[in-house]
Amino acid sequence: MAQTPKTLVNVQVFAGKDGSTAMPGEFLLTSVEIKKSINKIPRAILTFVDGGVAEHEKFAVIESGLFDQWNKVVIKAGYNNVIDKTPLFEGYIFDQDLKLGSPNKFTVTCFNQAKYLTLTSLKDVLEKKKPIEAVDFVLKNNEHKSKVKGKVKDTSKSKAEAKDQIILDPQVNCWKYILDNLSNYIAVPNDKELSIEAPDFAQTPSDFQIKYGKNLRSFEVKEASTSLRAIEIKGYDEKSPDKPLEDTKTAKQLYGSFTKYLNSDSGSVFDVNKIPEYISGTHIHTKADMENILETRKTQNLLGFKSGKIVISGSNEVELATMVEVEGLPTEYSQSYFVGGIEHKIASDWVTTLKIGLESNGLGATGSGASTGGSLGSSSSSSSGEGASASGNLTLGVVHSIHEDANGTYKIKVNIHKFGDKIVEARMVQPYAGNGLGKDAQDKGEGMLFFPNVGSEVILTPIEGDENYWVILGCLYSPVSKPSAEVKEGAAQPDEKNLHKSIVTKHFVLDFFDDDAKTRMTLASRDDGKTALNAKKYQISMDIKDKPNIQILFDKTFIKLDEEEGVMIDSAKNITLKAKDDILLDANKITIKAKADVAVDGQNVNAKAKVAFNAEGAQVAVKGKSMVNVESSGPAAVKGTPLNLG
């Protein structure tokens, strides 16, 4: 049994606007409960008996004004009229509750300074910062920074590399943002200062002694030894997609240096569990991403490795995120325990409970695979800890610019409404994109090139829930941005048959009309101001149902390929046929007709008829510069009036 050498418990409470007014001795405080934990906001609950059963009995505690909302509260405790100078708790009143009964109970709920981080948010886009540096930015720039003192200790402990952009969502309060982006750090919410730090499992234990048979009241701590297993991680390097981006660490490599924190037989199970943790995702782009996730997951596993509670006689000498030793346990047990939480309950007695490690309900499923770095102790799915997560976070934005992306990923800049019109970078989804066939085709890109115009409304989603890595899925029509009237034949909306499929650019229309009776494809210009496609000045069209034909119209020049009429060319000006080799005209009948002259010019001109050859004109002249030969195999006749020979 534990000894209780300290018999009289004393509690001192200060309250008021600045927390400096001592609570009057006549106030009947029946109990004090204080809960502190890493990655959680500390809370204190004070319970009073206030007021009586008669009408004339006042509610002295409530009416004193000391415990009004937002007032500051300082709680101290000690034994035998000796009060510890260091407060058990400092914070602010956020809730009150009065229950009338026998007796009347007035409950005051307080939270420490970190609570104010839940009442503010930031909207910004940070460039070239690590996630932990973004956390530091939030601590230094939030609107309650005068009330919340906090800092990040040693950002070099983060293995993450700087991100091109980190988006601060105004819909996410600062406390939640911090938890979602801790990586391998923890939030230690001390009353005087919120400390963001990497937990140290090799630190020297505190001087406070916990001894079995003396101040140790109960001990319930267990090890999850099989949770310390190998980790396999695989990513995707978008700059070198053909090269593998992967790493494997054995349990011994990850946890072998922490043997002092383990029971003597725990190290022997490193190789027993043959199932590794497998982490993958397209958000893992670099070796730095892998190192950061490995370090985050290792920290997470160590925090969850030992769990349980150690109950001792009331004391204020133990701090969060420190190591304590317990003397008197079996020799096989490690004496070192990482303090993840502290609870004080004071009524007729004072009992302190030390929570070991990180509570499972604070661990969540986050922290090992988030592309922002992950977190330890957040329940947000936007930082999924086991690799990829289904997000569904679709949002709207307006294109700001489509200038060239210096990183070669063809990102464009978009104003996203949910971020207060902050500009973010996003990649554009294309139906088809590639670098060509074979290794020699790197500079011979293939695919479709469709980018939205500046001012277009687009719909975006974050890849695997990472709101720093967006892709544009497509564009939206609206009452302002409507489909072109040229492809709707005057209709404001598409009909149920959905006959039109069109691509419309600034100067061109490619329209497909799929009616069963009239099926048409048209490529036309948009520069003539005419709405109807068949009235366009420049167009190419194809009909395949009603009188199948292909037509080409260039202003007043018209070419038609028709199933019944054949090929017709109607030119407003000249028609020129040129060939480096032969030109052959082959038909049942060929007619050449000119309103003016017909000229045939060549090195040798041959005209041959199988039946008859007629040359007729008002005047016919046959002239040879050197010789003229007229010859017939049968009769030959030369007639004229008069006839001149010579």
UniProtKB/TrEMBL annotation:
SUPFAM superfamilies in alphabetical order: gp5 N-terminal domain-like (SSF69255)
Region of interest called Disordered, as start-end residue ranges on this chain: 367-388
Biased composition (Low complexity): 377-388
InterPro entries: Gp5/Vgr_OB, Vgr_OB-fold_dom_sf
Regions that span the bilayer: none
Pfam families in alphabetical order: Phage_base_V
Annotated Gly residues bias: 367-376
Domain Gp5/Type VI secretion system Vgr protein OB-fold: 396-477
Designated name of the protein: Gp5/Type VI secretion system Vgr protein OB-fold domain-containing protein
Species, as recorded: Microscilla marina ATCC 23134
